[in-house]
Structures are given as C-alpha cells and as structure tokens.
Design brief:
mainly alpha; 11 helices; 71% helix; 0% strand
Length: 265
C-alpha cells in the first residue's frame, strides 16, 4: 500500500501575514482579559465614566451649549473612537520592548507587532458600538443615512493608527523618554480634537486649522450617523491627506530603523 502524503496548504505571503496577524490579535485579547472578571465590560467602562463626567460638567454645571443634542450621543460618537486611538498609540510605545524575545526569534514581518495592537484595540472599539446604539435609542437620537460613512471612518482611523504606530514603536526603542512624551501629546490631543465639542463650536478661523488634525475629519464621519450637520468634507479630505502622509512616513521610519531595533532590543 502506498503511503498517503498529506500536503500542507500553500499560503501566499499575504495569507500567512493575515493568519499570523489574527492569531497574535486573538492572543493579545485573551491575555488581556484572561484574569479579568468583568472582561468585555472593561472595554466600555472607561469611556462611559468619562462620558458621564463631561455630560455632567457641560449640561448640569456650566449649562454651556456645545455640540448637539442629545449630548451624550454626540459625546460618545467621538469618545469611543478616541479610546481606540489613545489605547493603540499608547500600546505602540511598548510594542517592541514588551515582546522583545519573541520578536527576535520569529521570522514574520515586524510590522505585524504594530498592526496587531491596532486591530485588537479596533475590535474593542467595535464591541463598544452597542453602547452607543443603546444611548441613541434611550435618548431618541435618529439614525441618519450618513451612517454609510461609518466604515470609511474606521478605514481612515486604521490608516492613521498604523502610520503613527510605525513611527512611535521603533523610535521609543532608541529614545525611552518618548513614551512619556507620547502620553503628554495624547493628553493635549484629546482637548485639541473635537470630542467634547464640535468643529462648529470653534472660533472663526480655528476650524480651518483644526481640519488638519486628522481626527477632526474622522470624528465628523462617525458623528454624521446621528448629526449630519457635523459632516464637513474639508476636514475629511485634509485629514485623509495627513493620514496618508503619516502612513508613508511610518513605513519609511520603520524600514530605516528595523535592523537597529532588532539589535537594540
């Protein structure tokens, strides 16, 4: 009898990359929640607490008209994607230092160590969308046809995060103080981005400057699902250009520093 030879499926480099990316992402999520009792709830608890604080301050204390009504939906529609951005960039500062031994011992493309953080935080963001939907139902916010731009917002934010991550992750290996600097920049960026307010609330002229913050256009796309008047294509187009530029810079920085990073870690 002739022995039956079982052949492994031949995967293309892209298929192997996608398979490895998914395995590492699932591993990252399992490790993160393996010892957690609340599990999934932690991914939404932080933005809910922050949203409650800002809702109370701007609707019950100051009574200042910012954003749109219902304000809690207006706030969460930008706060939830901000948590994705903040978490992914913060984790990217430790992308190579935390997994140094595994990175040195594997042959998979090193960009995957940045992309798996973007993907895992993106999955947590998608898991928090039902919270936004519930608040929209309870407050009577009407879903508009502009919800079709939601996938575009996700795609643009993914490009932006990959670009920023590919810049931050290798540079932190050489400049350890950059990790603290990134935390300060993120804190500043939170208030410099239209999260607790809209671009329409900025003084005349400042909205043009804020448009080059790529998060401005991305948040406008998210918010247009409930507040179509928040959608302005100028910040979307300007932010897309900045995101693509950061992505190109990120790949260039990563390519130039990859060998040095492997030696340093």
């Amino acid at each position: 009898m002739s022995a039956t030879v079982i052949q492994r499926p031949t995967w293309s480099p892209l298929e192997r990359y996608r398979h490895s990316l998914w395995l590492l992402t699932v591993r990252d999520l399992r490790v993160r929640y393996s010892t957690s009792v609340l599990g999934y709830l932690w991914s939404i608890l932080d933005p809910l607490v922050m949203a409650a604080i800002y809702w109370f301050v701007f609707t019950q204390v100051f009574h200042r008209e910012v954003g749109e009504q219902p304000y809690i939906v207006f706030l969460l529609s930008a706060l939830l994607p901000w948590m994705w951005f903040n978490g992914a960039v913060g984790d990217c500062t430790r992308a190579f230092l935390r997994e140094a031994r595994l990175i040195r011992s594997t042959k998979i493309p090193r960009t995957i160590w940045v992309n798996r953080l973007v993907l895992s935080k993106g999955i947590e963001f998608l898991a928090s969308i039902p919270v936004l939907a519930l608040f929209a139902v309870f407050t009577g916010a009407q879903l508009q046809w502009q919800v079709v731009f939601f996938p575009l917002a996700i795609a643009l934010q993914t490009l932006l995060l990959v670009g920023v991550g590919l810049i931050v992750a290798p540079l932190v290996v050489f400049f350890r103080d950059l990790e603290r600097a990134v935390k300060l920049i993120l804190r500043f960026l939170f208030y410099a981005s239209p999260i607790i307010y809209g671009l329409n609330n900025l003084p005349h002229g400042f909205d043009r400057i804020a448009a080059f913050n790529p998060l401005s256009g991305i948040f406008a796309l998210y918010r247009s699902a409930f507040f179509p008047e928040q959608l302005n294509w100028y910040p979307v187009i300007a932010g897309t250009g900045v995101s693509l530029a950061l992505l190109a810079i990120g790949f260039a920085v990563f390519r130039l520093t990859e060998r040095s990073v492997l030696k340093e870690i």
